[in-house]
Amino acid sequence: MADEQDTDTLLALVSSLTHKGHSTEVMLDALVQAEGNPELASQILNRGHPGSEVAAGKKRKRASDLDSWLKGPNHAKPVSRHASPLSSTAPSSDPPIRKVNRGVDLMAVLKQPPPSKKTTPRKPTLILTNPQMVAEHTPCTMHLSILPLQLASKLFYSLEQSSRDWQRNKWWLFDRLVESPHRTAFFVRKTDGVSDDETWHESAQYWYNGRKTDPPDVFSSEMEEACEIIERLVTDEIRRRPYRYPLEWAGGGVDSTNDLIWRANVAASNRYEGRNESVGWHSDHMTYLGPHCTIASLSLGTRRMFSLRETVPLHETEIRGAQTFNIPLPHNSLVIMHASCQERFKHSVPPQSAMDVYRPIHPRIPGGPIEPFNCRINITFRFYRPDFKPPSIPLCKCGIPTVLRPDMKNQRDGQEGKYWWTCFAGAQNDGKSCGMWKVMDMEAEGRGPTVGSMQQTGASSSSSSREQLQNARR
Ligand SMILES: O=C(O)CCC(=O)C(=O)O
Ligand SMILES: [Fe+2]
């Protein structure tokens, strides 16, 4: 399920570390400067607190600093090395405070040496308006008008009705209980049609912040119908991909009668009301999905922007910067987040300044009026892997199942990256966590079969090579 904590967690962290309330925009700016480090961001903001010189979220007045410099030592004030808290230069962990006195060469002061850390210029956000652009720039594919129109309308109407009661996800952030800015629900499929192993029913009970819930609702008949269409489309797309990752699931379903290589057995759904409801930057937890999962997200209702941003690995940050891609998703469109998307990119549905009203082409009741809607409902169809079923998930010292996260900053072509089992208690346990952190070891933990293990045993005809992967990477 979604790791909704990333942006929201960072914001809440910054907020709890700063002396006074700052607007989200100001905190986000500080986080961008601090390259996502909440401690640094709070230092930047706290320097604007009484007793310091840099106004939080405001440009420092250069004139008064020069004035104090000209007035000499008695009037000198500590001046940050960084021109402004809004500058694109990331501060070091403890930004040096320097005093500038009369007698110092003015030019020497103004011509500060460039910061030692090279920063790559930020690339402008790109709007990907068609499937070709999405495939070219991201590890996703976009598919328009994918369900028969009548089915898309029926599914929208039934979910629009039931989602009015969906809950907002709640989790603990230190001493605060925070709530998702959208409503959410989880569904489980009655049977995958391939085997009678329904272990994902148990996994599905842990969808809510790793806490055991009552069994979730099962797919409605419309969801089932949509899911079957989506499975075939995803399977075709996976077949067309130039590369499959070694840790991808290669078990049940491969040789099934329909020759499906991708199946869904659960679905997470969100309702975004109006233009302000959103989901922050995150990559989806892999606890039950495993590494290199494929997730198919169906959009219904109003068109909203889906944003993707790559987490540039540390070894590449000096040569290239991250870029944000915005994909407008209309009613009845599907985005497939292919293998490696969760490892390399974060995604979000940001608040918007404007939004189109959605008018279905079919009335809710035959012959009735067509009402306008301002909500978007998305369904992410997912496959909970049998080799990641609940008894196999390590428990942390708090005694609850850990969460599997990719080491996004150290990915190497999506092959050599590590995955960590981390304590998730903080989200549900009054914000207290044991801080457990353990590297996942597929072999030692007895997981698989994977695409890689099948290739090793010659069970799969597809070949792999680093070269092939590098050509395939987008
Ligand atoms: O609404 C969307 O398109 C994205 C939802 C999402 O990221 C999630 O459920 O994990
Ligand atoms: Fe997500």
Automatic annotation (TrEMBL):
Domain of life: Eukaryota
Record-linked Pfam families: 2OG-FeII_Oxy_2
Domain Fe2OG dioxygenase: 263-385
PROSITE patterns with a match to the protein in the record: FE2OG_OXY
Span list, region Disordered: 43-98, 446-474
InterPro entries tied to this protein: AlkB-like (IPR027450), AlkB-like_sf (IPR037151), ALKBH3 (IPR032854), Oxoglu/Fe-dep_dioxygenase_dom (IPR005123)
Name of this protein: Fe2OG dioxygenase domain-containing protein
